[in-house]
Fold:
Amino acid sequence: MQPYIKHTSIAALMDRSNVDTDQIIPKNFMKKVERTGFGINLFHNWRFLADNVTPNPEFELNKPAFQGAKILVAGENFGCGSSREHAPWAIADYGFNTIISTSFADIFFSNCFKNSILPIVVTDEQLAALMAEISGNEGVEFTVDLEAQKVTTPGGLSISFEVDAFRKESLLEGLDDIAWTLKHEKEISAYEVEHKKRLPWLWPSA
Amino acid sequence: MTRTMYEKIWDANLVHEPEAGSPLLFVDRHLMHEVTSPQAFEGLRLQNRKVRNVHSILGTIDHCVPTKDRFNIVDVIAKKQVETMTANCEENEINLYGMDSNQNGVIHIVVPEHGFVHPGMVVCCGDSHTATHGAFGALAFGIGTSEVEHVMATQTLQQKKAKTMLVKVEGKLPAFSTAKDIALAIIAKTGTAGGTGYVMEFAGNTITDLTMEGRMTLCNMAIEAGARAGLVAPDQVTFDYLEGKEFAPKGDHWPVAVEYWKSLRSDEGAEFDAVIELKAEDIAPQVSWGTSPEQVISVTGLVPSPSDFTNDVKSQACASALKYMALDAGQKITDIHIDVVFIGSCTNGRIEDFRAAAELLKGKKVADGVQAFAVPGSFPVKVQAEKEGLDKIFIDAGWEWRDPGCSMCLAMNGDELKDGQRSASTSNRNFEGRQGKGGRTHLVSPAMAAAASVAGHFVDIRDWK
Ligand code: SF4
Structure:
């Protein structure tokens, strides 16, 4: 995984709530057997006109000022719906590495961390202030410092956010989750021995 | 100390809780389908890792399967996905009810039919509707593909403990109200984010009165309330359902297992982080009007107006939903005309669902211009329905009787709405474009869907002839 490094980047505004995974990546693009190349399909149904190729000029992310944005600022309950990891894959592949909202759906939230994306939870007031700053100055760049757990803006906002210590470390170092877990191989094997005794009917030899 | 059922399952499955890092939870059962697994197998191969406990996995192929002429998958990429799943399972000796199995069907229908999930288990699948299996008192939840890979390699998940919510439903349901209506009524109350961070336990006499099929429908929709999982305490209904099934404990193991399962229910007086209560009497048949499952109202209601919501976000969401759905505020729900009716999915694709719909369709005909199709959740459901003659009732009423699959629940298999078409659907999501780009979905129970197919619009089945 890519380590997450402090950065200053354009923040794009998506003033919508309940952005669901069917919008993030419509299912007709989920048939690939690879992890890469989904960015082109991100928000497909909103992003393109009926001919499926012409960018929809009314869709916010198509604004010239938001091109190259790495930070996405969106309304509450972002990422609700399915467990498809194709959603964070598409978001990362498009170029975002940070999403700021007041709340995220559980599965989406944990999927982000597996893909070097930092989901930041802020309060209603903080979100409104961040959104206002973008609307008033489209193309504005925010600074996200995961180490210090802070988002700062040219408009003078300085917002501290919470992040689970383990997830923070994994993001900063780009750790492989499986490798971390396998360090506990001894505990897993011991658990399995006990499990087999307790619930023998769940094991093939029983 | 008293514990909730969630806490008991958590404790029993906790492998390790390191001081720094994440708790590791043991996974008893891992379910799999073709859409969310290929990248996980690829990841294992790249790292030269092996599947740890092959016996814990059961797979099906369901999302991409056409329900007419099922072997003829036209989309080359979908075909590749099906082939990849088949090859991955063969290579790893994973038990797969594949395309040519007479047990094939939607994963969350097939798994219970074989008694693969038991109370107290931790169950996961790269699919959010894994919540379905909470009906057995198992902690069942959806995971992403990276986690699918993680479970295959380690048999564990890095998990954070969830909060607990008790959802209590008491009383007798009105005639024609079903588990689906309870689920929709709960989501209307909590909102689609109301359950975020929680595991919901459904309790109360209305819930214990439900059959296993009904409990599965209810838990299936827990994810639409944002909950990580739903749970129903195991009882005699659960044990009777499981007994004798292929993967159920046998012989001397059976009484030991039942004893253990009985110990799982939440202790008297156990504390939940949140409690909500509903009266069954208040739950009339429900119809969703918007593009989120929380945008739902009883069939006797009117389409709301943005000004009915005091919360800005909800008011704005209402306005954009009305626009997408092409509905007017104040319109009667029973005046909404539909083009397509779909009965199926892991929410309502079980035998009871087809019985309930057939009951209403007997001797009736589908309205002019309405296309209606029934998609059994699995081949065993299809065979059973045909044994009972239900297929004839559907066909005589002008319905199509299809082969199993996810079908128009998510429309990545050829079954879909055309731009602007409106459906009455027994599935679980009414998101924009879920059933086809520009398609408009109304979520309902099977009986409500059946009646709508005949009338051409929604009707209150309680006084419909
Ligand atoms: S029927 Fe629908 S919700 Fe269920 S597994 Fe298939 S696509 Fe998912």
